[in-house]
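Batch manifest, entry 17 of 40.
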Amino acid sequence: MPTLLDPIQIGALSLPNRIVMAPLTRMRAFDQRSPGPLNVEHYVQRASAGLILTEATSVSPQGVGYPNTPGLWSEKQVQGWSEVTAAVHAAGGLIVSQLWHVGRISDPIYLDGQKPVAPSAIAAGGNVSVLRPQKAFEVPRALETAELPGVIEDVRKGAANAKRAGFDGVELHAANGYLFDQFLHDGSNTRTDNYGGSIENRARFLLEAIDAILEVWPADRVGVHLNLMSSSHSMQDSDPRALFAYVAEQLDARKLAFIFGREALGRGDAAIGPMVRQKFRGAYIINEGLTVETAEAEIERGDADAASFGRLYIANPDLVERFRVKAPLNAVVAETIYGADATGYNDYPALSLAKAG
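Output type: structure tokens
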């Protein structure tokens, strides 16, 4: 049976192992939302991952919802990402860009005073991330039907810019309560046009965006990020199993390379991942609170092809080697997950440094 350390083919990508670095928003793209030397070093440190999925990267200024997160709409950003991909490739790694539009999970402070946009004028619960003093999410502006092709074109351009920047593929972020997730769920999408109502209509926006990406990238270098628990930013749906069954079937019909499924283990009859895996013939990458033991068990059982780790990759740049030799793991320092420099970003020791110290 395969293990985490065994190679795997995911679409056109030949991974040396099945350990995937999850997308991790770290808010350290300081120069016009462009990656710099700090980010280059961070990703190179983690190039031994079977595959790196970048931090979520906005496809347009309208898609921004946090300070200092990167984009892929400007030439400067393309150049910054080109330096990241070249360095990761020189270190022997593979890196895929995660394309992002936050939708209603934003605030006018990030949008030059404009309202955030969403499928419907329904605010998310909770407060705007990292904004102080705390402020509740505003009621967003519902996108007009005529505006949707423009958003899809932003995604297509982001995908084209990712290709110019030297990425090995792209993943569309359709999870965690951001724009494409908002369209999927009937708790946030009450539209009455062709993008609301039925599951087929609510999935239309996502699938049109994927089809636009497929104008730029072959399907075997494209993936989609889904949160099968509908657990972030007030997501809820009256029939999530039927929703994700349809999405999985449609992504399978397009022969995509992978689905990244965020779902905690142990959900029993509520689990949606096994059904998605049955309907989707590409690779299935699991994520959410995994340990080396639980990830290994899922892969050995055939319930997943690869496993993705987020918090473990924050603190362990050499996670693959630590798994290989069963070494202790560095603990995450929560206070430095977001910051203004290398502290808590590039200063976690690798095994060689830890031993030398």
